[in-house]
Amino acid sequence: MKWASLASPVASIKNQFDKWGLLGVNPEDFRIDSRRTVVCNQLAIATILVTQIFFWHNLLALFTTLFFLFFCSLMLGVLWLNHLKKYRTARLLFVLTILNLIYWFGVLLPVRWPETKTAFLHLQIAFASFPLLLFSLRREPWLVVGLMLYVTAQLVAFRYLDDLWNPIPPAANLSYARGMFQNHMSTVVSVLMLGLSFGFYQRMGRHAEQQGKNLLRETQKQNHQLARQDEQIQLTLRQMEVANLTLNQTLKEQAAQRAQLQHQHSEILSSISYAHRIQTALLPPDNYVKALFPHSWVFYRPRDIVSGDFYWMTATQKSIWLAVVDCTGHGVPGAFMSVMGYSLLNQIVSESPDLAPDVFLSQLDERIRHILHQQGADDESLDGMDMALCSIELRTGKLAFAGAGRPLYILGEQELHILDGERLPVGGLQYKFKAYKTKHFTLQTGDRVYLFTDGITDQFGRDEGRRRKFTPARLKDWVERQRKTSMKQQPRRFEKMFDDWQGDEDQLDDLTLFAFEWQGD
Question: Where a domain ends, among 139, 167, 195?
Fold first, then answer.
């Protein structure tokens, strides 16, 4: 506990001592000159403290007080010169003050206390190393040599002046000679120690100076590397700023383009939705369909908003005309074709209501080719349509059918009848000569008729884990299994069966199926 209580004051004194030692010195300067300045400051402060302790008991004497004040003023002058960064002058003042102090004490004190003469001689020799400690022989050779000569002169004067002033009696020559020998030997030993100290200080100074140079070079190298890294970082930051500005500009442009595209998409979608309403209005209304075919249903599912498929029907005085049409393409192109096809069907039936279905298809083909300017050139449109077209006499139930790439299914009481169409489209230039044929069938009450586009049979789905088309055979099988199912239940069953079949597969084409049950006149 006793030593612990002294630790804090001692640490405080040490910190203050180190702080005073850095007076006038940059703490980050590791040169040997800076270290010499620190040593000079600390020695000056230590000398003031030691002198104060030495003269404390006799400070009331006038001479002692004046000497103490004069000496402290010189040491404070050393500190002040270091503070002003006049380091060489400060060190020279310190060395001369200490050497002269020791010399005059060695001269004066033995007058009263002769036994102290030898002690002051050795003290003088010991302090002769101060010039070597505080100055560099390589950079300040004349100053070091001058101080060493000055110290040597003091030693000689100190050693021999007393002998000149106080001659030795002849009777004491022998003892005097023995003392002289001992003193000379001590002087030789002291000079040797002085030489060793000189060599040690010089070597330590060169080693410290070399370390300082190496540290300075390493610091400069690191500073150079840091400067290059800083330049690279600044260049990278500028490049990043330019890239960031470019990116922000690009993002703004993309945002503007996205907004423009969204606006255009909204307008296009609005236009297509309006076109869908127009196309839906062209289809036969539900009440009109029920008036012509009371027991009927339709499965109509465009792939896009508007469709290339449509179904058409009209009644004349003697018969009912019915068609399910698949135009080239789907979406907007198919919708344009469907509007044209719908208009031409109405035009032909209004001009010649009693035409045979094959003649009807031929006239429709000629008019489509004329409207689309399909005259045989390579760059002309190949657009057209497939359809199943039939007319039913109201009085007899006789059905006349002509197909352009599409069949017609008739589910009778006993079997399924299939009327195949010709593999010829309406419109287009794929075939130079086209000959459609009319096929006849007499419907009986309860017979069910199915007309459909190829989007139904070409749709992909999953069968036992494998991707397959729906196929006409699968549709035939389903139709035959609905013989005892009412026409009212069939649309829900077909939609569920078809959705289960399609699963996650995308819809490939427009889908249309029209079915009715003949009730007779």
Answer: 167
